[in-house]
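Hi everyone, sorry if this is the wrong subforum. Our group has a chain we'd like a structural model of before ordering constructs, and none of us has done structure prediction before. Sequence below.
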Amino acid sequence: DFVNALVLLANFLIVPALTYGSQLAIGALGVTVVYSVLRFSNFAHGETMAFGTMITILCTWGLQSMDVTLHPLPTALIAMPLSILGTVLLLLLLDKTVYQYHRQRKASPVTLLIVSIGLMFVIGGLVRFIIGPGDQIFFDGVRFVISARDFKKATGLNEGLALKTTQLITVFIAFTVVLITLWFFKKTRTGKSMRA
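Answer:
Right subforum, don't worry. Here is the predicted structure as tokens:
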């Protein structure tokens, strides 16, 4: 009964929390880096992540329509480099057209904060206009690393543990991004200069 309770806890609490926490960790890492380097609270950071996600979804749909897959992994992994590039281009465009103007005028931090809130609404509206406000769901690749039924069969327990491929990929990417960022700031000359 104790092991069944642990499996139930892992299935409905620990694994989803670890996955969601990994998503939040990537966003928090970006906010922290921007604030620590530029001393600027970018309220548009979450919408910037949504913009990147939108590009990933659109590219994934395009790749799926051309029957390009990465089976057994999700096709979205092919689209991610394009979304990263698209998001970087958006941020460079916003920096050159909006933030640079205010920096040159030596605007106060409060002004930059208000500007970032305005950009948050603009980017959020753009994302909702292009892709819609609802959930966008698509499946490809292998959905489960292990399904609850297979787990029950393999262990003989009454409760099953399901581990989705997307959950495993999310945790892996978050862990990798955090390690690479840590290495960048501690070991490279550019990272040390940014920290200084």
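For your construct planning: The CA atoms of residues 49 and 185 lie 22 Å apart. The first strand starts at residue 144 and ends at 146.
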